[in-house]
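ugh ok so i messed up the first submission bc i forgot one of the chains. this is the corrected input, ALL of the components this time, i swear. 378 residues overall. if the numbers dont match what u have on ur side tell me asap before i send this to the collaborators (the ones from the other lab, u know who)
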Amino acid sequence: MCVLAHVLEDAGIATVVLASMRPVAERMNVPRVLYCEFPLGRPLGMPDNAQFQHGVLGAAFDLLNAPSGPVLVDYPEVVEAVETPLACALPPRYDPDIAPSIDEAQGLRAAYDRAVARRGATEVGRAVDADGVAAALGDLERVAAGEHWKEVYGPRLDTIAIAHDIRAYYQEAALELAGGPPPGARQAEAWFYEETEAGKTLAAARDALTEQEAPSGITFYMQPVGR
Amino acid sequence: MSSDQVMRDIMANLPVPEFESTPWASPPPLSEATVAIVTSAGLHRADQERFEGRGDTSYRMLDRGDRELILGHWSSNFDRAAYVSDHNVVYPIDRLEELAADGTIGAVAPRHVAFAGNQPDTVSEVRLDTGPAAAAELRADGVDVAILTPV
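and heres the new structure output, hopefully the right one now
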């Protein structure tokens, strides 16, 4: 973002960066920076809160009045991430003959479909679509159980995209089931990794991949840092 | 330590491109300015090409009327759920429309820009090639001011 600020200003466009990494902005001689200490992924601070978002934009536009730069101002309100799991009930065990994660994913399908119908878009689809989530979990179960990843996937390991799709499927279903105002940052993530069978399967598969010395550039990005 | 703090600590020590000076564009008064959003969230329409996993230096032009775009940035290290709840928390296009309607800003740009933030450390191609190309497209649309929203 800070590089683009330089490029845009050079082209004659005045910029304000809503920076989330203050030390990076400090080092890059960026013309106008509003440092926003909000959870990463939320540069405007709070979803479904137009008043808060207008507050941030207003503070950003105020920086255009500065006669010269660089200008770096801290937005006075801080928003903290909430790392306790989202309260969202999981479907009861339905088919004891299939893996718990697959049973669970299938049980969430109706909620996922409602979420997509409501929003008109989905984040699922990098490697698999919603119809492929159960099979993708089945593959991860095999890896977690000790099968070598090359036996499961062949030469190309695409588990970053697969992990993304499974997590997105779960999070979209969970937001639909939980209802109400949007959860705090990282709450949906915490719910997925700490409460769901799929999250546990994904973590176990990543551990197995690490043991099998799969490329670390892939296993690292299968889960957020710290998990 | 929170996951966000871990990421902030990692990023604080990454090498960054050096810029010895600070360019400075002087915009018209805000009430006359055309405003665009430039985001590094990797947003794209379903009918546009996806962003590659790492080091994708391309960009997508988003039309003013586009909504419910796909969050194409590949990192798992930020809260992705908020965007699903409300795109404005990353891409405040509805807020800009409100500010244009009440006269605070002159106009909402006809097109906006999305890059993917997971770039190589040098960022040379964005700096020298795709960044200037995107800037030229915005200038051609009469854009005076850009709000930059990272994820």
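quick check: Chain B has one domain: 3-7+29-149. that seems consistent at least. Residues 3-7+29-149 of chain B form one domain.
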